[in-house]
Amino acid sequence: MITPEKLFYQRIVSEWKYNFGAWRTVIDWTVALYILIPFLAFSGYQYLEWWKTTPLWLEPVPFSFFALASLLFAWSGTIRVFLKEADQLFLWNRHKWINTLMGKGIGYSIFLNLVTSVFFFSLLAPFLIGHYRMDIDKLILLGFITFLAKVVLGLSKQLLALIFPGFKQWIILRVLFLFSSLLFVTCIPYLLLNRVLCILCIFILFLVILILIRRRLTIRGSFLPDVERENSERLKYVTFLLKMSGITIKNPKKQKKQPWIFRNSKLIFHQRTAVNGLVEFGIKSMLRNKQRIQLYISFVAICLLAVLGFSTLKWLVWLILAFILTNFVSADWKEAIQSDFMRILPWKKEHLYLATRKFLFLMTLPGLIIISAAMGFQTFSWLGAIAVLPVSVGVAFFMSYIVAFWCQVVSGGRGC
User: Fold this and answer.
1) C-alpha to C-alpha distance for 49 and 311, rounded to whole angstroms
2) How many angstroms separate the Cα of 123 from the Cα of each of 134, 193, 295, 403?
3) Are both 36 and 143 inside the same structural domain?
4) Rounded Cα gap, residues 407 and 384, in angstroms
5) Are residues 12 and 159 in the same domain?
6) 34 and 113: one domain?
C-alpha cells in the first residue's frame, strides 16, 4: 500500500537515478581518466599544501572577506518540497499527504544544506585555521551559524516569492540580501569572541527555522508556483551538465512581456551581414536571459577563485579555465542557434562557423579579462594586471577558434 512516506522516498530515488544518469552522460571513462581523476588528484595535493603553507595572496585579505563569502554561500540555500504536476489530480484533497511530502522535502533540503556546509567549511579550514589562527570550536560554531542562516534564507526567499510577486519581491529580496550582508560582516567577528552570544544566536536561528517551516506548511494557494520551482530546481544542475556535454534541455521558462535588458535596442553591428546577424541574435538572446547572466557571473567567480587558489602551475590552470569558459559559453550559443526560429532559416555552414567563432570570442572575453587581470595582479601587481590583458585577448581568440572548429566537426556544420 502506497503511503506519503513511500511516495517521497520513491521521488528521492527517482531523482538520484536521474542525476546519476546525467553524470554518466557527461563523464565517460575517457573524461574520468584524463580530466576528472588528474583534477581531483591535483586538487587534493593543493589542499594538503594549503594546510602546510599559507598562500601568499592571503596576506592582505581581511577576515571580513570570508564572512562575506559565508553569507554568499548561505544565500545560495534552497528548499525543495518535491511536488509534481500530477499531485494536482491525485493529492489535491489529501492535504495530509501534501504536507507530509512538503515536510519531508524540507527536512531533506536541510540535510543537504548541512552536507554542503560541512564541505564548504572544510575547504575554508586551511585558511581560517592556518592564517587567521581560528580555533576548531570557533570554526564549528561559524559553520553551524552559516548552516542555520542558509536554511533561514532558503525558507525566507521561498515565502517571499509566494507572498510578494513581481517587483515587490525583487525589492524585498535585495533589502534582505543587504541586511544579511551587514549582519554577517559586522556581527560574525564579535559573535566568535563570545561563545554565549554564539549559542544564543544559534538558538534564535533554530526558533526562526521552526516558525518559517510552520508558516511554509500552512500557506495555501502555492501549489502551481511550488511545482514550477521544483521543475526548475530539479533541472538546474542536470541541465548545466548536459549543456557542457553538448545536449540541450529546455527548462521551463516564465513568459515575459518584454526583456529585462535591450528592450528598445538598435543594431549592435553597423555592417549588416549574415555572420553579424547571427552573432547579434546570440548576444541579445544571452544577455536578455537573467538566469544565463547570473550563471555566467557565477561561473566566472568560480574560475576566479580556482586560478587564485592554486599556488603552483597557475598559468596552466589559467589556460585550462580559459578553454572551459569558452566551452561554457558555447552552450548558450548552441541553445540560441538551435532555437525553433533560427532552425527555420537556411544558414550556410561557413556563416555558422564564422558566427560561432565571433560569438565565442566576444562572450568569453569579458570573463577571461576579469580572471586574467586578477591573476596578473596577484602575481606581478598592477603591472602584471595590465600586461596580461592583451595576452588574454589572444588566448580568447585562440580558444574560440579551437572550440568553434570542434563544434563544426561534431555538429556537421550546424554551428555547434
Assistant:
1) 9
2) 14, 22, 22, 32
3) yes
4) 33
5) yes
6) yes
What confidence score (pLDDT) does residue 149 get?
A: 95
Do 135 and 23 share a structural domain? Answer: yes
Do 273 and 231 fall into the same domain? no
Mean pLDDT of 32-46: 83
374 within 8 A of 304, measured Cβ to Cβ: yes
CB-based contact 173:160 (threshold 8 Å): yes
**Positive or negative torsion for Cα 177, 305, 333, 34:** negative
Q: Is the pLDDT of residue 65 over 90?
A: no
Cell (9 digits) for 219: 500557506
Please give the Cα distance from 66 to 185 (Å, whole number). 9
CA 379 – CA 387 distance, rounded (Å): 11
Q: What is the pTM of this model?
A: 0.69
- Asked if the model's pLDDT at residue 185 lies above 90, the reply is no
Q: Residue 51 and residue 130: Cα distance in Å, rounded?
A: 7
Determine the structural domain holding residue 326 and report its residue range: 256-411
Three-state SS for the chain is CCCHHHHHHHHHHHHHHHHHHHHHHHCCHHHHHHHHHHHHHHHHHHHHHHHHCCCHHHCCCCHHHHHHHHHHHHHCCCCCCCCCCCHHHHCCCCHHHHHHHHHHHHHHHHHHHHHHHHHHHHHHHHHHHHCCCCCHHHHHHHHHHHHHHHHHHHHHHHHHHHHCCCHHHHHHHHHHHHHHHHHHHHHHHHHHHCHHHHHHHHHHHHHHHHHHHHHHHHCCCCHHHHHHHHHHHHHHHHHHHHHHCCCCCCCCCCCCCCCCCCCCCCCCCCCCCHHHHHHHHHHHHHHCCHHHHHHHHHHHHHHHHHHHHCCCCHHHHHHHHHHHHHHHHHHHHHHHHCCHHHHHCCCCHHHHHHHHHHHHHHHHHHHHHHHHHHHHHHHHHHHHHHHHHHHHHHHHHHHHHHHHHHHHHHHCCCCC
The contacts of residue 178 (CB under 8 Å, 6+ apart) are none
Render pLDDT for 272-298 as a digit per residue (tens, 0 to 9): 788 888 888 888 888 888 778 878 888
Query: Letter for the amino acid at 107?
Result: G
